[in-house]
Specification:
It contains 10 helices and no strands. The chain is mostly helical and 202 residues long. InterPro entries: G3P_acylTferase_PlsY.
Length: 202
């Protein structure tokens, strides 16, 4: 029962799309309409809002992943397989919030927050940070969507191999699957919009 409570709480926390809400409240900006990818995420909050609102969004997006997992780890057994679902719940909530009919974000920042919530287990977070730095500063990959996909594939595989806890490894795989599928859906939607636009022009 406790696992289900934390899963529900994590999903609800993840469903709060601060990148959509804060720019809308403070600046009357709808970043899902201004941005090309229609993504209610931290990157677009910085890009179409400003540094001030973007920073607030980043902190809140990290916290909504961090708090359910960190608090849950204090009450639950992180080696129980159900804890993998606790880890995945905030990411799933961000990617597929019920109140927006599943039209959520790409779940990058919240994924970092979830992995921060595993402290003192630091291997998963270290791996994700390592691959983001690698593909941002050493082997530069663009656009950002491709970089995120490659990063999370490498993260998921390495977490499976290097994490001592099978439940934590399973949680990392679940997070990777959600992020990759959300990126795939966004890519399909973008291509569909481009095709429809070309047909109208023709």
């Amino acid at each position: 029962m406790r696992y289900l409570l934390f899963i529900a709480a994590g999903y609800c926390c993840g469903s709060i799309l601060f990148a959509y809400i804060l720019p809308k409240i403070f600046y009357d900006i709808d970043i899902t309409k201004l941005s090309d990818d229609k993504n209610p995420g931290t990157h677009n909050a910085f890009r179409y809002g400003n540094k001030k609102v973007g920073t607030k969004v980043l902190i809140l997006e990290l916290l909504k992943g961090f708090l359910p997992v960190f608090i849950g780890a204090g009450f639950l057994d992180v080696n129980n397989n159900m804890f993998a679902v606790v880890m995945a719940a905030p990411v799933l909530g961000h990617a597929y919030p019920l109140y927006r009919h599943g039209r959520g974000g790409k779940a990058i920042a919240v994924s970092f927050g979830v992995l921060m919530g595993l402290y003192p287990i630091i291997t998963p977070l270290s791996l994700l940070v390592l691959f983001y730095i690698l593909f941002s500063c050493v082997i530069c990959i663009s656009p950002d969507s491709c970089k995120s996909i490659i990063t999370f594939v490498c993260f998921g595989v390495s977490a499976l191999l290097l994490c001592d806890s099978k439940a934590v490894a399973a949680g990392c795989i679940a997070i990777t699957a959600i992020v990759l599928f959300r990126h795939y859906q966004k890519h399909v939607a973008e291509n569909l919009e481009i095709s429809l636009f070309r047909k109208r022009v023709i």
